[in-house]
Specification:
The complex is a heterodimer of chains A (331) and B (498). With 331 residues, chain A is mostly helical. Chain A is built from 15 helices and no strands. Classes of the chains: A mainly alpha (331), B alpha+beta (498). At the A-B interface, helix 1, helix 2, helix 4 and helix 13 of A face helix 1, helix 4, helix 14, helix 20 and helix 21 of B.
Chain lengths: 331, 498
């Protein structure tokens, strides 16, 4: 009897179905990635380079990197700004999103009009960044509504504050815009994560006498780990590539206070003298930073129990192997 | 099967890595290598073949005269127009209406955002990409005109002499176009590749009623008094600052924003970059003193420019009344007049302490344009830039008669045109200026101003210096710290050392 006839190999369909993805991924992700990496070691700069496509590897291939990391103050400033504005927007963002998640998913207190609130909280995320940046630059203009309120109406500041000339104020406004735009999105993801949990574990916790706070910290949060991992990693990627809001709000000013890494890359590549090689090197540095931070987050938020079980299984296999070898040796 | 599929996928991936690695720029001529070096010499003048040009044997210019072809022409030929506004593309449509036999069609690509350089980025990308969608004619303004006429993209610019089939200098001389406009549109080989249509020589546009309030009623009508008061044409800003202090004492701000002052002072005859080095010349350095006095004296409303606060200052409804603005005729026509509200008619015009020019639209024809397209553009460029007749664009535009009455709102005052010959035939006695003729002040500014200080990256460098100067004005940095930070930023962004 022919053995092969009994089993059908479905694996080939998997390969066939994956072709469109592989092609698109190769063309639009892998190719640009490798080309960017290569470009970062070359002299590819200027209009001539862009028109001829000619690039030569530099005598010191790491020159673009060393210049960026050790000589280019604007790059360093951009990195500091980006990290600062991401941190101060992400921490309150995740905290507020968690708080709202706890409220909206609470089994004890049922809020009325939840749908409306969710829509309202999510709303800033669907408005274009350009509109929001323009809105905030108008709000915080020298003769804008905020100064009108604080100075003209309430008189709580001695003179109109020049938000657009204050580095810290501008950074805080950009961070606030990011926070305001994204907490609703984060909240929805977290709510989806909570709703996907088995309700029995909450019932068990209730029967065991856990109150709302205890349920959140000891049941909800531990089970949200994978969702949190997704939120943190996507936020790192989004935060370190922050571009539209700071560019449209004050074009990176005042005095580069809101100049971000992506703006640096964009301006190097498409403005001034078209330093595509430096832009590529800066991109690769951002890529490495994002990768390292993501790996770190993966490590910190890993499922420790599952990891322990895996370790145990590996240890057991190793000991079984050793036993086997010992047995063979005895024989 | 499995192996075959894996092999195919690997091959596809490999091709993806290698296939696009070739020449990105197509067959465009190579520009100069990096740095601010001039572009290579353009190719020898090739009279465009075919189309309307061939009908007049090698060009529109025959025996020193421009010959406009007759009969139906340009059917099925599309001209792609790049601009940051629709001013000239609309004018070109008007030309079509005026010349029914001109059958070319237009595809305007208009980027209405120019404040952050995004128009330039879009234009550069289109020029570099080339092909069927590349611009045939594009417009550039003062902040970056020389990038396209003398530096990085100059090799894309077709000399007007090639376009029109003969020397254009006699036409420029006939029109009496000021040298600052011609020089900026001339490439390193001395060929004119672009011309502006506006006269952008600038002055101090001020409120007569406020001047009278500060210095007495004689200032209501006597512009000579005002010229002397602010040191108009004197070459220094001391009188201007003294006047600013007087205005401040009367509760009036001299200017709306610091940028208004910087706009004028930065127009030095020396470029920022000289021999590949960043040079801060005396005039630009003087902004640190003038600006500090203006800022710390509270002589401006510091509300920024091109925003609600700036516009409010034009109608006297801002934080404090503002005495005036530094700018050209287009600033009156397109901006101040429309925002002046009840102050319309109370304004006057005098020379600024230093002559300067602001703005302007240079039209550049892409060398890659086909002969058929060039034929259409030759007509248009001549009409827009060099035609001094009563049916030429300059006369009709300057006189506000280009469009019918329904479009008259487009011209709230009047604009100044590049040709002095045409301008002489117009009488820009503006109701906005209380009946004052604006031409003498602006023409004199244009006559004495030199655009030799315009260079590559002016937008970036001017913006950076103005930005860092604010840190000095606000006492956040010492002068040396501010200058060091500015120089470092130019080094970081443009790789240009001091």
């Amino acid at each position: 009897m022919n053995k092969k006839a009994k089993s059908v190999n479905y694996a080939k369909y998997g390969y066939i179905f994956s072709i469109p993805f592989v092609v698109a991924f190769s063309l639009f992700t892998m190719y640009p990635l490798f080309r960017t990496a290569f470009m970062s070691f070359t002299d590819f700069a200027g209009v001539a380079a862009r028109e001829t496509g000619v690039m030569n590897i530099l005598e010191n291939p790491l020159e673009n990197y060393t210049r960026l990391l050790f000589e280019n103050e604007l790059f360093q400033t951009s990195m500091r700004n980006t990290i600062f504005m991401w941190v101060i927007n992400f921490i309150p963002q995740i905290l507020l999103a968690l708080l709202l998640t706890a409220w909206f998913t609470s089994r004890r207190t049922k809020f009325k009009g939840q749908g409306l609130f969710k829509v309202l909280f999510y709303m800033p995320n669907i408005i274009t960044a350009g509109s929001i940046a323009f809105l905030f630059s108008t709000l915080f203009a020298h003769f804008g509504p905020v100064n009108y309120l604080l100075y003209d109406m309430l008189g709580v500041i001695p003179e109109r504050f020049q938000f657009n000339q204050s580095a810290l104020a501008s950074q805080l406004i950009v961070a606030f815009i990011q926070f305001w735009m994204w907490y609703g999105y984060t909240m929805l993801i977290l709510i989806a994560g909570v709703l996907g949990m088995n309700p029995e574990i909450f019932e068990c916790a209730e029967i065991d006498g856990a109150n709302g706070v205890q349920q959140f910290f000891y049941v909800t949060l531990p089970n949200l780990k994978t969702i949190l991992l997704f939120v943190v990693v996507t936020s790192i990627v989004g935060g370190l590539t922050m571009f539209d809001v700071p560019r449209l709000f004050e074009d990176g000013g005042p005095r580069n206070a809101t100049h971000t890494l992506s703006m640096f890359i964009f301006n190097q590549a498409f403005g001034g003298r078209f330093f595509l090689n430096r832009a590529a090197a800066a991109s690769m540095i951002v890529f490495v930073i994002v990768a390292i931070l993501s790996i770190l987050v993966f490590y910190l938020l890993r499922d420790k129990d599952a990891a322990a079980i895996k370790r145990e299984i590996r240890a057991r296999k190793r000991s079984e192997k050793q036993l086997e070898q010992v047995r063979k040796g005895v024989q | 099967m499995k192996k075959w599929l894996v092999l195919t996928l690997a091959l596809v991936a490999m091709l993806a890595f290698t296939a696009c690695g070739g020449n990105d720029g197509g067959g465009a001529a190579a520009p100069p290598a990096g740095g601010a070096a001039p572009p290579p010499a353009g190719g020898a003048a090739q009279p465009p073949a075919g189309g309307a040009v061939a009908e007049v044997e090698g060009g529109f210019i025959v025996d020193g005269q421009f010959v406009r072809p007759t009969g139906p022409r340009g059917e099925g030929v599309e001209i792609i127009i790049y601009g940051w506004n629709d001013e000239l593309s609309t004018a070109m449509e008007r030309y079509k209406e005026m010349h029914p036999d001109f059958l070319f069609t237009f595809r305007p690509v208009t980027h209405f955002t120019d404040w952050d350089g995004s128009y330039e980025i879009g234009l550069n990308a289109a020029l570099l990409a080339g092909g069927a969608d590349a611009p045939h004619v594009f417009f550039v303004e003062q902040a970056f005109v020389v990038n396209y006429t003398q530096y990085y993209f100059a090799h894309h610019a077709l000399p007007y002499s090639e376009l029109l089939g003969g020397d254009v200098h006699p036409f420029i001389e006939r029109a009496q176009i000021p040298s600052f406009i011609v020089d900026a549109g001339t490439n390193r080989q001395g060929e004119v590749v672009g011309l502006g249509f506006q006269h952008t020589g600038s002055g101090f546009i001020y409120r007569r009623d406020l001047a009278a309030q500060i210095w007495g009623d004689a200032y209501l009508n006597d512009t000579a008094l005002m010229t002397a008061r602010i040191g108009g044409g004197s070459g220094n800003w001391n009188a201007f600052l003294t006047a600013a202090a007087d205005a401040d004492a009367a509760g009036v701000s001299m200017l709306s924003d610091m940028e208004d002052a910087w706009q004028a002072i930065r127009q030095s005859p020396n470029p920022w970059i000289q021999n590949d080095r960043l040079v801060i010349d005396d005039q630009r350095m003087s902004y640190l003193d003038i600006g500090k006095a203006l800022y710390q004296g509270g002589f401006t409303n510091v509300g920024g420019t091109w925003n609600d606060s700036w516009f409010a200052d034009m109608s006297g409804t801002g934080a404090r009344p503002v005495l005036g603005f530094l700018g050209p005729a287009w600033l009156i026509n397109y901006v101040i007049a429309g925002n002046s509200g009840d102050t319309y008619g109370n304004w006057g015009l005098v020379a600024a302490p230093d002559p300067f020019a602001w703005g302007g639209t240079w039209s550049i024809v892409n060398r890659a344009a086909s002969d058929e397209v060039r034929a259409g553009l030759a007509e248009l460029i001549y009409w827009l830039k060099l035609d001094t007749s009563d049916t030429g664009f300059l006369y009709m535009f300057g006189g506000g008669t280009l469009y019918d009455d329904s479009a008259i709102d487009y011209f709230l005052a009047m604009d100044m045109v590049s040709s002095a010959v045409v301008q002489d035939r117009l009488s820009p006695y503006l109701p906005f200026l209380g009946g004052q003729n604006m031409a003498p002040v602006f023409l004199e500014a244009g006559r004495t101003f030199s655009s030799s200080g315009w260079g590559p990256f002016d937008r970036e460098i001017n913006g950076s210096f103005g930005d860092w100067a604010m840190a000095y004005f606000r006492d956040e940095m010492t002068r040396d710290e501010m200058l060091a930070a500015f120089r470092q930023e130019i080094l970081d962004t443009l790789d240009i050392r001091s």
